TrEMBL record:
Superkingdom of the organism of origin: Bacteria
Full protein name: Beta-lactamase superfamily II metal-dependent hydrolase
InterPro entries reported for this sequence: Competence_DNA_uptake (IPR052159), RibonucZ/Hydroxyglut_hydro (IPR036866)
UniProt keyword Hydrolase present: yes
Coiled coil: none
Keywords recorded for this protein, A-Z: Hydrolase
GO molecular function, one term: hydrolase activity
């Protein structure tokens, strides 16, 4: 799978900048995808420890800042190469300006609604079914809802994670007719009605991930639907951060004691 970005005409001042060409390259034997356990909101790290590269998808609410920074430190993320934003709400963008101000040179990709924020390296991310690639890691937007929420697939080799990001509008299933989805991140803290049974039947994922929100209530009917499809449901606030190691032809859900935390000792370091 892959992903996309659209070049923009230059517009002044607070408007969005042209898409920059990334210099990073995720082409090692594995990457780690970590769904971070923060008190409120959503944040996911994608890390290549061998080349010391990291991407963050969403930043959680402001009340989650201390915990988010603790996770980044524990994962030895000293530099962020990029931050991707899929939803303009505070539970996704609450720490964005802080991170941009404290991680120098980080590129931000997100919807046009972010142009009201103080983000010097902001790139508009709004082209459906076009790809953005960094070696063997690629992103593809597959849907932008009427509310502007971006759903996309992150692909590494043959393995992928589908980040569904609108809980009210179902997506067109044409994009998954020829793609096997491994893992799905459920939209809006499982408070909505998506994905529908029809979409799940086509997608047929093995694992689903649900983040924590102070302002959203879980839709139990949606959880029952996932269970009826024999999809494992991982609640981040119950299990703690969820560490998944992707190779180019397989993935493994790691225990905390197996996970990589310090790049200087990437094969042996245990959780402290």
């Amino acid at each position: 799978m892959t992903y996309l970005i659209k070049y923009l005409l230059f517009i002044p001042a607070c408007a969005l900048l042209l898409i920059s060409v990334p210099t990073w390259n995720f082409s090692d034997n594995y990457i780690d995808v970590i769904f971070l356990n923060i008190p409120n909101g959503e944040a996911t790290a994608i890390v290549d420890y061998e080349d010391q590269q990291a991407i963050l998808i969403n930043t959680g609410a402001p009340s989650s800042r201390d915990k988010l920074l603790e996770h980044l430190d524990r994962l030895s993320i000293k530099k962020l190469d990029a931050i991707f934003i899929t939803n303009k709400d505070e539970e996704y963008t609450g720490n964005l300006e802080y991170l941009v101000n404290n991680y120098s040179g980080v590129d931000v990709y997100g919807p046009s609604s972010l142009n009201t924020m103080d983000l010097p390296n902001l790139n508009q991310w709004n082209d459906v079914n076009k790809d953005l690639e960094w070696g063997d890691l690629s992103f593809r937007i597959v849907d932008i809802s009427a509310r502007g929420n971006i759903s996309f697939i992150a692909q590494f080799g043959d393995e992928n994670v589908f980040f569904l990001n609108d809980g009210q509008e179902d997506i067109d299933n044409n994009f998954i007719q020829t793609v096997d989805i491994d893992i799905i991140k459920i939209a809006e803290f499982a408070s909505g009605v998506t994905p529908s049974d029809q979409i799940l039947a086509v997608m047929d994922p093995y694992v689903s991930i649900v983040f924590t929100s102070k302002s959203h209530q879980i839709n139990n009917d949606l959880i029952k639907l996932l269970n009826s499809r024999w999809i494992d449901v991982y609640f981040v606030h119950k299990t703690g951060s969820i560490y998944i190691r992707f190779t180019k032809d397989d993935y493994e859900i790691l225990s905390k004691n197996q996970s990589v935390f310090r790049y200087k000792d990437i094969y042996d370091k245990k959780l402290e």
